């Protein structure tokens, strides 16, 4: 089992973007990494939170629920949650759960819609 890590890479400036980098296997036991995501949403109401999944090797349904919850909280506070750089398998799971990842151009400053 890979170590799970989560960190807030950048705090928002006037652009209101926060980048959260997650890595490793994300499952029910990944409370530390998912708390980083929840903290970013909670501490920066109205911010657009971009979650970098490029180093994530596994995602289970409990994490998909956590992503959906974080997205709902971000939207309720006037922000957004974008999931970026997911593997093909993870991207498919996100699509099934209607958590479509943002396009690469959107993650680099374009429209994330």
What do these coordinates show?
By secondary structure, the chain is α/β, with parallel strands linked by helices. The chain has one domain: 2-Layer Sandwich (Transcription Regulator spoIIAA), CATH 3.30.750. Helices cover 37% and strands 29% of the residues. The chain is built from four helices and four strands; from the N terminus they run E-E-H-E-H-E-H-H. It has a four-stranded mixed β-sheet with strand order 1-2-3-4, with helices on one face. The chain is globular, with a radius of gyration of 13 Å. It starts with a strand and ends in a 6-residue tail after the last helix. InterPro entries: MlaB-like_STAS, STAS_dom, STAS_dom_sf.
Biggest β-sheet description: 4 strands, mixed
Helix count equals 4
Q: How many angstroms does the end-to-end distance come to?
A: 34 Å
| Major β-sheet strand ordering | 1-2-3-4
Can you describe this structure in just a few lines?
37% of the residues lie in helices and 29% in strands.
List the helices and strands and how they pair.
Layout: E1 5-10, E2 17-26, H1 31-43, E3 48-59, H2 61-76, E4 80-84, H3 88-96, H4 104-107
Parallel strand pairs: 2-3, 3-4
Antiparallel strand pairs: 1-2
Helix pairs in contact: 1-2
Please describe the structure with a list of short key phrases separated by commas or semicolons.
113 residues; alpha/beta; Transcription Regulator spoIIAA; 4-stranded mixed beta sheet
